[in-house]
Amino acid sequence: MPTPSLPDRPHLDQLRRRARELQRGATGGDPDAVALLRRHLGAVPEGPVPLHLAQLALARALGFAGWPRLVSQVRVVQAASRDPLDTPRAPGSPLTELLRAAVLRFGPDDGPASWAHAASVLAAHPGLPAADVHAAAVTADVDALREHLRRDRRAASAEGGPFRWPPLLHLAFSRLGLAGVPGQPVAALELLLAAGADPDAGYCWQGLTPPFTALAGVLGGGEGGQPPHPAADALAARLLGAGADPNDGQALYNRMFGAADDHLDLLLRHGLGRGDGGPWRRRLPDLTDAPADLLATQLAWAVVHGRAERIRLLAAHGVDLDRPLAGRLPVAPGRTALQLARRSGRPEVVVLLTALGAHADDDPEGELVLALLSGDAEGVERLGAAHPDALPVLRSTMPSLVLRAAVADRFDGVRLLVELGFGVDALGRQDLPVEQPWETALHHAAGEGKEDLVRLLLALGADPGARDRRFDATPLEWARHLGRGGTAALLGPVTPGAPRSAAGG
């Protein structure tokens, strides 16, 4: 089942207020409050609603079995919550500046400039590693780290620095090696582990789950494409060998977007998909995915994006290709990989899954969607004749199929869909085949630099002035923001209100 959605930075006081508001609303007859109680409790009591019933209904609405279960897990999140992006504008002490700038924070300031700044701080204050165990860890200064641990082994687990991290996280998230700072990260990791550092150490980034663990730190990735640690392979293998659980939802999510599969192979060989999910899942059973669901998410993403090698790797490790998909991706839970491949316009993935042992199924809707996305006019005619109501239904239930065809680079599919009445400017999601109104096919083509696709969509009547729902931007603005000069040059002259001088980007 999908994991529940708590508010950002969940806090018990906040949730207690919500429960009291629900209690007052239901007691006063507020329709929304009464409906929520009825949906999650089955009935609304006569007279004043007891607080414990409002708490139970709220907990169930958030996906928890009861209020005590919610409270226990929110307490874990609160204790583990850190915000690496919440930093003061004024520079801190040299130690604070080093620890802040040397690590991945998974924000807009991650990058060479930050790590170079940390390196310059270290050059100006070379005694920092000898003075502080966290500085020794972030610089992978083995001699300094050994001396700190000789004086006090408990330093291996002591929280410190601006983010209240243990030394292991400073080591794992450090990118000083990319700024030319020499160090011995693998040897430093060995020292910390020998002194009792927890290989599953992690924190909840801005109160979100799953947690960012040491394993996630060394592997990098994420929506911003942050680089792995220079010694990522050796560090990840050693963490796993020391007992770090391979069912690491954040590490998997962060690396899911890239084409490389080395991380996935490593995690699978160390038990990904097996066991109980490790210490973080034991502490946060309703806020982290089960091992099988982690694998389902990886398979679903690979299917949607045509990652053939990843699909082969998962199948080779025994992932059930016929199991209904679950996990964090909102790609119609309950559908199989084959059904998802059809709805993503991936005929080559359908062939691959079948060759790998996925069982054929009766899926006329999926077959029709695949024919549409592939531009198979004969197939659409044949399937439409057998199911005469199917095409009108799809226009209503899947209005963004033009975007799906564009994402899959199915030009014939784009043409056929527009010819059959699907909206060329329909909003959808370019990353997943779900009906969520985010952007148009032209936004996708502009942002990805697909010049031929931009020409086709414009010829089919796409509106260059259309704005997406997330950023309120035109396709031209997407192209410029993402540095796509070719598509910006095509869109500049036809976008309403675009300055002529900036037409080329």
TrEMBL record:
Pfam families this protein is in? Ank (PF00023)
Keyword annotations for this protein, in alphabetical order, are: ANK repeat, Repeat
Positions annotated as ANK repeat = 333-365, 437-469
| Keyword Repeat among record annotations | yes
Extract the SMART domains matched here.
ANK
Q: Which InterPro entries match?
A: Ankyrin_rpt, Ankyrin_rpt-contain_sf, Multifunctional_regulatory
Name of the featured protein: Ankyrin repeat
